[in-house]
Amino acid sequence: MTPAHPWEDLLASSGKPQQYIGCEWNSVRPRAGLPDVTLAYPDTYELGMSNFGLAAVRHILVESGRFNVRRAYCPAPDMDSKLRASGRELVCIEDAFPVSRSSVIGFGVPAEALYTNILRMLGLAGLPARASERPDSAPVVVAGGGGLANPLPLSPFVDVFFLGDAEDHAAELFTILSGGGGRRGKLAEVSQIPGVWVPSLGPKPVEVQHVRALRPADAPVRQLVPLCQVTHDRAVVEIARGCSRGCRFCQAGFVSRPVRERPPAEVLDLLEKTIGATGWEEAGLLSLSFSDYSRLEDLLPCLADFERKTGVSISKPSLRPDTFARLGGLGRISGRITLAPEAGTERLRWKLNKCMTDKEIIDSFDMAFGLGAKGIKLYFLVGLPGETDEDLEGIGTLARAACSAASRHRRNPGRSVSVALSPFVPKPATPLQWAPQAGWSELWRRIRFTASRCGRATVGWNDPGLAVVEAVLGLGDADSTSELLSAAVKAGAGFDGWSDRFRWDVWRGLIGSRPGLEDRLRDGLDPGAPLPWDFISTGVSRGYLLDELGRYDAGQASPDCREAGCSGCGACGGGGPPGAPLSGSPCPDAAGVAGSLAGHSLEGVDAGMGRPACIARFWYSKRGLARFSSHLDTVRMWTRAFRRAGLEAVTRGGHVKRQRIRFGPALPLGFSGSAECVDVLLGTPPSPGMMEAVSRSLPPGFGLSRARVLPPDTPAPDREAALAEYAVMCDIPDPEALMRFEGVRGARMENGILILEIDLSYPKARPDRLLEAAGAAFGSIERTGLFGVSDGRRRPLAGAEGGDDPA
């Protein structure tokens, strides 16, 4: 029998097989006659699924209706080794379509630490890494994303770069590249699209693209819901893009200007639609600094109302301590929050243009815990130009102040306060791109010095070796740096962003053998000399960046242009009114926001915390690649499916309400099941069509067979079930010999299939383990029945043969 996936025989022995099987909600089936394009993320599925930029590009391409849009992720190290050892190629997550057969491969590149994985993925796809060595029939390789302010180090490996916001030009770009005609002609044609650079055609002036407004139509609403847990396992709504604060180390703050915001009513509308389309129990609001959102006072009360009505928890992104006071009195905080003072003293913060006093920072600790935060994470940079040990002592002072605040609010400081130390990396397109970087040994000294002064806080840090590599790649060129990158991959580098996989031994040797690289980092770049990436314009002028570098050296602050008027950076041509979000629809007043929320159909997913009126029991199957999902994956899937179906489930919990759902005995990973069951406790009797609504809300691999309405005192299926029946593909001469194992209640052959009856009170009595102990070869295993026991005889579970049919 042909396997459903070319890696199927490798999945059971891989660390997390769930990340290769797809089975996602909101996935789109390919259609005949459309060109095939693959969006690729150079890290694992659980990290790549949390990348909003790739999700936004996918949404634009899918909505255009012009392509079959698939995705591919970098296999985890264990699977990577298995694929290379067995000579298998990289395939897409949706349907195992070979990446090499795509017309276009579009890489999303968020950081320099992922450059090596791009080359590794091209190799796994069976493609030469260098663009000049790929035949005309090979896919066109495109790259875009926040890690490409200087694309030169990747330029020998990429056919086309798209720089900036993709909303206006992504469909046009992929249409041309996936269409007919010769490769050279298509590259020449797309080179005329704004934001596009084709390395093979040589340098040309390129403007990084910025959409003028965050349009609702461009926001991904039908977001993909993974079957397995991912890093940020929640719905996402982008509320703002860009930042005008001007922190001089921050690349995102300069590259993404100007600021564009969504009105509060639009944020709420997108939240409602996204939660309805996905069933997620948590949502995140995306922006560079949540507390800088200009209509926060209008938005927060409505978010609290949204949470109350839907039971959905809304997380907020990183906050500035000096604007954190805006949250006071506007609602509670759940979970942990992130604050980023960046430096330990006011002197150094003023250099960074992160102008906040020690008092403002310390006051924010008490405010955060007072509003209900369970913990605080503090971000600091170490190794900044002009930094002294006194500045590092200041980090310790702030960390200890946070611990004191935690103690005052009856929190355990060791568990509720964490400090993250990041070695400074000079980034292109920032005022500090010309600054030197401290050496590897000195960065380690400063980290150890700082960590020893942080009291009871938990301290973590990024590897100084990785900071050196990021600086080398970020400030690199198309020749020596790309050659270094290629050599590192050949020597085994990859997954550089993973602390346990980063090969500093490889990088250190390669960098050390090229003295010019170390000199460039130690001495910094000459502000009077041209930079290799000067042909790329982010909108912020070189002169403005040099002025800001001078202000860093002088310790002078630059005001926020949204508060003090245009600063002349060049990002918006100096013509926009300060503080005006460039959004397409006006911000309503608070009453208008509340009114728009009142009109939304938020009820119906939460029946409250009262006594259940009845129980709906669903019998379902779990087959195909879905069998490689775990029991916890299945639990999450059902909670989201019931939310999508609109069932009025009884809930429990406090701020975050959880549906009351009960499951049958856990099905081991890798087993299929055709008689699984799940209960949902309902506050009111179900309406007609419940089974159909739930069936439509299931992802691939799951199917409903029947549903029954049962009395509210019906025992949970995991308590009621005492026996399980399994069908095993196995040719065993004497099945009755298995009766000698504890927990086996029956063993027989039917039509060449072994039927096992197992007592569930013996957790070790699993069919796979029993057959391995018996030395018998076997194939697929399916659980075909769950039974209770009465008077020593097995019986069907409640609802298996009776009860009210809600369909």
Concise synopsis of the structure shown:
Helix content is 31%, strand content 18%. The protein is an alpha/beta fold and 807 residues long. Strands 18, 21, 22, 23, 24, 25, 26, 27 and 28 form a nine-stranded mixed β-sheet that branches. Strands 2-1-3-4-5-6 form a six-stranded mixed β-sheet, covered by helices on one side.
What percentage of amino acids are in beta strands?
Answer: 15-25%
Number of strands: 28
CATH architecture of the largest domain: 2-Layer Sandwich
The end-to-end span amounts to 36 Å
Q: Provide the gyration radius in Å.
A: 29 Å
Number of helices, where a helix is a run of at least 4 consecutive DSSP H or I residues? 26
Indicate the overall shape.
globular
| Coarse structural class | alpha/beta
* Helix share, percent: 25-40%
**Contiguous uncertain segments of 5+ residues:** 575-607
CATH topology of the largest domain: Transcription Regulator spoIIAA
Average of the residue pLDDT scores? 91
- Main beta-sheet strand count, sense and barrel state: 9 strands, mixed
State the CATH class of the largest domain.
Answer: Alpha Beta
